[in-house]
Amino acid sequence: MRFREDCQVLLNQMKEITGIQDSAFLLAALKAADGDLMEAVTFLTEDPTPEPVQSPAAAEPSAWEGSVVGKLPQDVSTVPAPHNQDNLCTDTVRPLESPKAPAAERDAAERPQDAHSAENKNRSKRKRCEVWGENPKQNDWRRADDWPVGMKNIGNTCWFSAVIQSLFQLPEFRRLVLGYSLPQNVLESCHSHTGKRNIAFMQELQCLFALMLGTWRKFVDPSAALELLRDVFRSAEQPQQDVSEFTHKLLDWLEDAFQLTVNVTSPGDKSENPMVQLFYGTFLTEGVHEGNSFSKIETFGQYPLQVNGYRNLNECLEGAMVEGEMDEAAASQSVKYGQERWFTKLPPVLTFELSRFEFNQSLGQPEKIHTKLEFPQTMYMDRYLYCNKDLIQMKREEMKRLKEKMVTLQQKLERYMEYGSGPARFPLPDMLQYVLEFIATKPTVAVSCAQSSQTTLLHSQAKPRVLDVLSQPNSIKERTDTGTEDEAFFVANSSPQQNSDMELQPPVSPAELSEHPAPHVVSEEELNLVQTCLQRWRNEIEQDVQDLKESIAGINLCIEQMYCDPLLQQVPYHLHAVLVHEGQANAGHYWAFIYDQTRKRWLKYNDISVTESSWDELERESFGGLRNASAYCLMYISDQVSRVGADGDEGPEARQFQKEVEALSPELRHYIQEDNWRLEQEAEEWDEEQSCKIPQMEPSPTSELQDLSSESGPEQSSLCEQSVRSLSSEHARIAKEQTAKAIANTADAYEKNGVEAALCEAFHEEYSRLYLLSKETPTPQNDARLQHVLIYFLQNNAPQQVVERTLLEQFADKNLSYDERSISIMKVARAKLSEIGPDDVDMEEYKRWHEDYSLFRKVSIYLLTGLELYQNRKYQESLTYLVYAYQSNTKLLLKGTNRGVSESLIALYRRKCLLKLNEVAASLFVSCEEAHVSEGVSILNELIIPCMHLMNNFEISKEDLDAIEIMRNRWCSYLGREDMDAKLQMKLGELLPRLLDGSTEVIVLKEPPKIRPNSPYDLCSRFAAVMESIHGASAVAVK
């Protein structure tokens, strides 16, 4: 139809003029303009009233009083504002405060930023590993005051560290081990190999505990004690030991060693053995077997619990204490189940062994169970004690009855909520509501286009409001097809012939004309009757559903509170340690969370590292279900042991440890002194080695600055200032082409008013240009911060003094000696720069801003280089650049979101690169060719594993965590493959512990090769090319 063609022509013209492609939006504007094309275009293109903008730290220079440039004569310091000055800050702000501005104002401005930086610093204080520096400083070897010491991992020995640390932090156990001694006659009479081995191990454990008390080292070396264990645990197939196996063996050895002392006074009496008293308890088993009742008492050390099928520790214990259910006719009145266990004596230290490994029959190898299992910080053991047997049996019967009732109610509720006899089922209340809506719907017929047009014409005389028009979301296609108000707008000016054409419509069926499904014929009486019945039924059904839900909620509450009886909360056990395993059944890493009674907080013991932790972190890493890490062993202590630990540790821990050291035997005290003396000798030798080393690379300006700032003497401040200027001078040199262009534009001012007027005009115009650039909206292909240091400063609200000094220093750059005018302006700028002393501008702050920009450029260059190498499939080189870019960028982002580049972009391509490289390394490894296997192992050890450990910190993203799991699972899938020879399987067994080990040993990545800095123009062009290629998925090569 003609009016539609006219409409489309107008819309096409508006799209061409305004660039707006939204047809519905353009049509609304056209309606608001009563069909006037030019008025509609004006409406769409006019600028809205600008909102006032708050003044940033550094603003457009509209007045120069008080600044260095303001020291010029008044008649030449007033420079016309740029054409776009309206877009600048509306308030008049001086670009540089007076050199004598109070330092207190600067301090007040810096305080919030410093607080934010400190907060971020505290949040990220614990890192898995560091990449900076090839050798840790010898101060990193030293223990910090009274902080607990770590334990060195000497090759798949994290299991030893986790268990020993948990036991050492039990004051009673520590006292027993350190106070262990045997009479000389007992030592001489011990001839068995087992007895000698146990005594030797006890002595080594004593020495280890003594060092853990009094050493000055940050961590101790357990090699001597481990050497005795290796003979017992030596296995070619299992290089990494099981915690429960080792704990069983350890307690056995300690029990045997202490039994030698007990035998002196009470031969053969194990009840006097302190290890038995501390770690062993007894339980009574009662049951019915083939109609016969039985009862027996057994001793336990570590109590085993199944994890599969249970949600929490209480459910595990309930399942372990009650097994099966016998026919009541065959059972006695006192035992209702097939077998029940009751604790008759609980040890002070109660250890639960969580069975998280099961054997997969189809695969022929063990698998780890990763399901989630919750456990409390305080566990009440009353419900499992024999003395509460009668009460608990009553409660179990009540619990059984409640659960059966719960199942019945849930089945009833399900019939309501999944109603129907077919495959598709729906809630019955909703179905009744839908029928009510159906019968209440009256049959409606769409009016013809001609009638709609005539009706709309009556309302189209008034001019529609703009907001009403713009609020209608329908598209232009929908409007023209339905022939309603939008169509009538153009029919108002159409000819009668066109109107007559619109009346010629083909016949349509009633179903087509009806907008919604509705009864064809329904009487008022039928409608009332059906509505009344349906509404009553629906109300009844809804009430039934509500009653069922409330009953289920009530039963749930009863079940949850079944054992909350105060009578069943008399025997509390407090969680002391959680031993965590990360990895698969065949390989992994262990660490421990241990509650520190003195500090009243959780600590994480991860080999040589001991760090503060929290219950939240313990939950994340111990409950399981989210990753391959989960608790493997839980150590609870009785209320009595907990109080003894707290009472004995009053005051600083260093004082308590010192008291314990003083109470040691002279031999152990001498052993500690010798080790501390050796530490001092090692530190001296390390210092000598470092002083003899030849630097391998020239120090960067930043490192030079740090060296100079550490010097003492009368010239320290001047040297520091000189070093600061080296960085700012470098930034001035980078921007010299832009500065030279600003000077070239001042020819008229130079000829008419002299050199100072030319400098003032150039300064003002350059500042205005950079200010406008800093306010432009960034795009994926453009980052204005790469163009100039001042754009970076302005976008990050740098102090005014820093901004102006930086710009003035650029006009004072010696590289600007192009002609007489440039030289003259450079000399005046240098003279004014010399008037600003260290007291006028905070040079430390000035240094930090320039260091940040230098690091920002380095991060950008590393990122671009890494992306280019990735696109050219050079994954090894790319990964190194991306890792360093990410690490440096993290430091910048701690100071503000606009200080660095996009963290998500670096993380994305670091992750992609790592996954690609892992595929390459894995393919090389399974090729079975010796050269390829060596190359694959080298890639894994030198790049993949260090990067994984850097990523795997406590703030790791879900995407990075998933990528790490994919890489680990790829290597774990090779375990037990029949097509892989024994030698390769052995090599895989050596690799997996490092791959799965989350220890905090320092991992060093070689810094990537130095890259010559680009000019701002080259860097921006390169940035645009790389960013465009990322979206276009095409490789680029930038020289």
TrEMBL record:
Q: Which reaction does it catalyse?
A: Thiol-dependent hydrolysis of ester, thioester, amide, peptide and isopeptide bonds formed by the C-terminal Gly of ubiquitin (a 76-residue protein attached to proteins as an intracellular targeting signal)
Per the record, which residues fall in region Disordered? 73-131, 494-515, 682-723
Per UniProt, the keywords (alphabetical) are: Coiled coil, Hydrolase, Isopeptide bond, Nucleus, Protease, Thiol protease, Ubl conjugation, Ubl conjugation pathway
Q: Which InterPro entries match?
A: Papain-like_cys_pep_sf, Peptidase_C19_UCH, UBA-like_sf, UBA_8, UBP14-like, USP, USP25/28_UIM, USP_CS
The UniProt entry's coiled-coil ranges are 392-419
| Compositional bias of kind Polar residues | 699-723
Q: Does the keyword Lyase apply?
A: no
EC number(s) per entry: 3.4.19.12
Q: Where in the cell is it found?
A: Nucleus
What are the recorded GO MF terms, alphabetically? cysteine-type deubiquitinase activity; proteasome binding
- What residues does the USP domain cover? 149-639
Question: For bias kind Basic and acidic residues, which ranges apply?
Answer: 103-122
Under which name does UniProt file this protein?
Answer: ubiquitinyl hydrolase 1
